């Protein structure tokens, strides 16, 4: 049986990650899924409702991935490397991070979506801060910089690398940036 709602979310995510929120319409989405525009309104009465559902589904996927990383990787640098690998899929597909693509539109976005995106990134910052703080405590992450500052640095580096390597279609260059980032987090040896 066809899951139209799931198809709509999947295709809308691709459109937003490729074109931005303002760069697609329900007509584009209807064409991508092969249904009438009116059918979209049955599932998502407004574009804001669709955007909120996209962010929620994206956040849920990341939540699951972050829990798996914490369970599977024993140290801070390994966890950050695995976190960075989540971004690599976007580079390989020529797509940006959904929430970054939305955040770029800033004040042009409805307030509800700005709040949802801020919540998404706040969750990532908190997860990264915990990972980095634990890494400093166990000696796997260099001491010195505050974990909260390092968390912002990690996201800024990965989002910037994703944006640049999406333009250049270079997953290898993204992987190189990730390697330098992770190496810079390790304790310095003398």
UniProtKB/TrEMBL annotation:
Entry annotated with the keyword Transcription: yes
Chain ranges passing through the membrane: none
Record carries keyword Thylakoid: no
DNA-binding region(s), residue ranges: 25-44
Domain HTH tetR-type: 2-62
One Pfam family this sequence matches: TetR_N
GO molecular-function terms, A-Z: DNA binding
Entry-linked PROSITE patterns: HTH_TETR_2
Source taxon at top rank: Bacteria
Keywords: DNA-binding, Transcription, Transcription regulation
PANTHER family named among the record's database cross-references: HTH-TYPE TRANSCRIPTIONAL REPRESSOR NEMR, TRANSCRIPTIONAL REGULATORY PROTEIN
Protein name per Swiss-Prot or TrEMBL: Transcriptional regulator, TetR family
Organism whose genome encodes this protein: Methylobacterium pseudosasicola
